[in-house]
Amino acid sequence: MKKEVEINPEKIHLFHINIVESSIKDLHQKGENNFKINVAQTTMHNLQEEKVKIGLFIDLEHEDVTSEAGAHFVLDFHFKIEDLKNHYELKEDNAIIFLGVFIATLLGISFSTARGIIYERISNTNMQGIILPIVSPQKMLVQKKEESKND
Asked: In this predicted structure, what is the pLDDT of residue 147?
């Protein structure tokens, strides 16, 4: 694997956010905000256009199994990376392997942005006030929804 390359934030451009799915089943009353969070991710890329898409799948499930309250979000974050060629290497079989720190950086940006979007989406519900926890991007790397794909 290549030596880790310094990541220059000025060369990372988040140019589009797509809320693919959003559903909220509200609580019957405020104050029952005992939710657990499940997060998974996918990564897609287009090397010629220097683009990477991070897909996040975020579920909030109420800890009371009798409650139907919860929320489900699928969000896509589209990035243009000026120096994308510096952040991956090609294996002998032409498989592309992105550097872990690079993908973790994009996951961190994506999840942080998703936290704000979700906070706003639930602000007018009985679930208002739920703030998603800070999640380690390195841990999210292993929580893939499905295999990474090319665009």
From this structure: 44
Band of residue 144 on the pLDDT scale cut at 50, 70, 90: low
SS (H, E, C) the chain: CCCCCCCCHHHEEEEEEEEEEEEEECCCCCCCCCEEEEEEEEEEEECCCCEEEEEEEEEEEECCCCCCCEEEEEEEEEEEECCHHHHEEECCCCCEEECHHHHHHHHHHHHHHHHHHHHHHCCCCCCCCCCCCCCCHHHHHCCECCCCEEC
Calpha distance 111→123 (Å, rounded): 18
Measured over the CA atoms of residue 138, residue 18, residue 42 and residue 44, the dihedral's sign is negative
In this predicted structure, what is the pLDDT of residue 148? 43
- Ramachandran category for residue 139: left, alpha or beta (phi over 0 → left; psi -120 to 50 → alpha): alpha
User: What count of other Cβ atoms lies within 10 Å of the Cβ of residue 23?
Assistant: 10
